[in-house]
TrEMBL record, chain A:
TM spans (from-to): 89-113
Annotated Pfam families: HAAS
Organism: Paractinoplanes bogorensis
Protein name per UniProt: DUF1700 domain-containing protein
Alphabetical UniProt keywords: Membrane, Transmembrane, Transmembrane helix
Automatic annotation (TrEMBL), chain B:
Highest rank taxon of the organism: Bacteria
Name of the protein in its database record: PadR family transcriptional regulator
PANTHER family reported in the protein's UniProt record: PADR-FAMILY TRANSCRIPTIONAL REGULATOR, TRANSCRIPTIONAL REGULATOR RV3488
Pfam families from the UniProt entry: PadR (PF03551)
Organism: Paractinoplanes bogorensis
Organism phylogeny: Bacteria, Bacillati, Actinomycetota, Actinomycetes, Micromonosporales
Start and end residues of each Transcription regulator PadR N-terminal domain: 20-91
SUPFAM superfamilies per record: Winged helix' DNA-binding domain
Length: 138, 114
């Protein structure tokens, strides 16, 4: 029961912390410590026993969004999502690269299959430029 | 409805901090006391938690000072008190506010009938 209650508080503080990105670290830590002390004092003074009462304490504090908005207003900062978009670009680049390799391989295989079956030199000689390279490896 | 809350937000901005200063004018109080007292007023605080960033700013600007004190029941409490700068800021606000209020009352027609 006790740990379940701590989970609610921890989750609340974590959600708040996520929305404090952009605020100087010491102000961020100060706010979290103040709220932690506030919750602990309320629990001690009101002899809070159940999770319902604990949620009431958190509701009186205000949602993480509301508290974070007040913090950003006081600090003169703006909430930005911390995840940089550059990181998301990498999987796409890798995927596109892999696709290109597969295409090149297919074209390569197709070209050779045609050469083997007809034994006629390729009509476009310039296209064969990259072809000789992989041969020694196989 | 959105306009109503927007208006109270605007009115709160710039005045709430002096309500906080006035709360600790005569005696030091800890965070929960201040926050609870303001939370009881329907048109002042949007949520008790929104007062803590304000307390932090007032402390950093030198109008409040704070100290952590052991509590006989429960965890340590952070007490806030008025500094000399905070006291003169509050005095200044009081004179400004009275003349400001009179002006608004006169222009908006909310003052007592003359």
């Amino acid at each position: 029961m006790k740990t379940q209650q701590n989970d609610v508080v921890a989750e609340y503080l974590r959600e708040l912390d996520q929305r404090l990105a952009g605020i100087p670290v010491l102000q961020r830590r100060e706010l979290l410590a103040d709220l932690e002390a506030h919750i602990a004092a309320e629990r001690a003074e009101r002899h809070v026993s159940g999770e319902g009462e604990l949620i009431e304490i958190l509701e009186r504090l205000g949602s993480p969004e509301v508290v974070a908005a007040a913090a950003h207003e006081e600090a003169g900062t703006v909430f930005r999502h911390p995840a940089p978009p550059r990181r998301r670009l990498w999987p796409w680049l890798v995927g596109a690269g892999a696709l290109l390799v597969v295409f090149a391989f297919c074209a390569f295989a197709l070209f050779f299959a045609r050469v083997d079956s007809s034994e006629v030199p390729a009509p476009g000689p310039a296209v064969t430029a990259p072809v000789p390279e992989p041969q020694p490896t196989s | 409805m959105a306009d109503v809350s927007q208006l109270s937000t605007s009115l709160r901005r710039g005045t709430l901090e002096f309500c906080v200063l006035a709360l600790v004018e005569t005696e030091d109080r800890y965070g929960n006391e201040i926050v609870r007292r303001l939370g009881e007023e329907p048109n002042l605080a949007a949520g008790e938690g929104t007062i803590y960033p304000l307390l932090s700013r007032l402390r950093r600007s030198g109008w409040l000072e704070s100290k952590w004190v052991e509590s006989p029941s429960g965890p340590p409490r952070r007490y806030y008190g008025l500094t000399l700068d905070g006291r003169s800021a509050l005095d200044h606000f009081r004179t400004e506010w009275v003349s400001f209020r009179h002006t608004v009352d006169r222009l908006v027609g909310t003052g007592e009938a003359v």
